[in-house]
Design a protein that fits this description.
196 residues; mainly beta; 3-stranded antiparallel beta sheet; 0% helix; globular
Length: 196
């Protein structure tokens, strides 16, 4: 910790001058460069429902071909059916599927971005909530009427919202989807990231 100085750099290199053992090569599993303390990591991902193998952890596997999908018949003609609901504890229970990310400690996220596996059944309207106790949630951002054909061309395209989440730190973040595009009866997210 605190060994790299105070200057900012775009590129960092680790040059290995000696290796342990005798295999004739060197190895690294994961490496991170960070400010001050290691960044919080995602510890748990929970969802209101899932469809088959399209489970919540897929949104954090760095694989554009896997994704989370809400349960069947959670939407009809783009509108939630009421099979999935979210209770922010600061207002009425709201229809729609949701995905919740828990971090190892609070993260002061100001921005977020997500991908979708296909152009159909992408989120059309949604809300982002934050919480530190997984009980009372604060509304951070709302989006309405985003049509898939305005941004989606492949499953590796990111839809980004910058500096929209305020300045407070939260351990839990929820995306609650209140409307979905088109007619599949469910909603989907490929990858989602919250960041400062």
């Amino acid at each position: 910790t605190n060994v790299l100085g105070v200057n900012s750099y775009k590129y960092y290199v680790i040059h290995i001058t000696k290796a342990n053992g005798f295999g004739g090569y060197s190895q690294i599993g994961e490496i991170e460069f960070y400010e001050n303390n290691p960044p919080p990591t995602i510890t748990t991902i929970t969802t209101s429902s899932v469809n088959s193998t399209h489970v919540g952890v897929n949104i954090n596997d760095n694989n554009y071909t896997t994704y989370w999908q809400s349960g069947p018949s959670t939407y009809s003609s783009e509108v939630p059916t009421g099979n999935d609901t979210f209770n922010p504890s600061t207002g009425p229970i709201i229809n729609g599927s949701w995905l919740k990310i828990e971090y190892s400690s609070g993260i002061n996220a100001t921005s977020y971005r997500y991908t979708c596996p296909e152009q159909y059944n992408t989120p059309k309207s949604w809300s982002i909530y934050g919480s530190n106790d997984d009980s009372t949630y604060t509304l951070l951002h709302q989006v309405s009427g985003v049509n898939h054909n305005t941004w989606w061309s492949s499953n590796s395209d990111w839809k980004t919202y910058t500096n929209v989440l305020g300045v407070n730190s939260y351990k839990y973040y929820v995306i609650h989807i209140t409307k979905t595009n088109l007619f599949g009866g469910y909603s989907q997210i490929g990858e989602i990231e919250f960041y400062e």
